[in-house]
Please model this.
Amino acid sequence: MKGIVVKSLRGCFSVDGADGKRYDCAPRGKMRGGGIFCGDNVEFNERELVVERVAERKNQFARPPMSNITRALIVTAVTPVPDMLLIDKMLVKCYARKIEPVLCMDKNDLPGAAEYFDKLKTEYAACCDKILSVSAKTGNGIPELCRALGGRNEIICVAGQSAMGKSSILNAVLPLLSLKTGGISEKSGRGRHTTRHTEMFSLPDGGYIADTAGFSLLSEQDIEAEQLKYYYPEFVPLQSKCKYYGCNHLTEPDCAVMAELSRSVSSGRYQRYKDFYAELNDYQKKKYR
Ligand code: GDP
Ligand code: ZN
Model:
């Protein structure tokens, strides 16, 4: 039978089968040792309870092991001090892996949140369609967030700096979603950073949201500096107007991206792009020396 891996814990994999039932399976012989990820579409034997085959992945992440992610909920907040370069990096990862980002500011009950939210909109409206303001504490904006997360067969991960509110948002969102679905099947294993397993919870429209509060989306430095410009969606339409073919928008003359600064390209984001480019360049030099 075909199914999707929704939970992995110490070599045991829970699979939601095509028949709507959940099966706890072991991997078939040679697949032991890290070959199966949460999110994997698999072929399994429902009598022997073994996973036979993993289908080709759309994308994959190593820590925690997750595959076929379609959407990322990037959580930020006015406190602790937000690192906007980190948000840029997570967005780059999303675009490089064809993942739709949802940028969510938590803690909108705190002073300074409104200003920070304005800044987020200024910096990211050109590259991210969904930017939301919520409070996991008061519940403000949570129904809107649930709507933004909905959709058919999505696999959603939650990412962001620690203490921004990822766990709190999951805790606020899951009961609302489960009211619609009539209960999340397994709640027992869910704890705050205490368990080492990866688990995904069913969404009403057939998708899943992964309990990946420690997810950074950044475990691999696999983007080349020269490629970076392609993962800034607001730069892409300008590229053909730059004087130099393959312009990296750094110091080249007649650069259309630089000409758009403070218009369709935010200056803050552009400055951080240059920092990120330099960082990747250094990394490559060290790697290939
Ligand atoms: P995580 O590390 O990103 O999962 O963050 P947590 O969900 O553990 O939250 C970090 C801290 O922020 C905790 O002390 C929460 O109580 C607090 N927090 C989370 N959401 C809100 C919120 O909407 N408003 C306020 N004032 N505090 C919040
Ligand atoms: Zn340019």
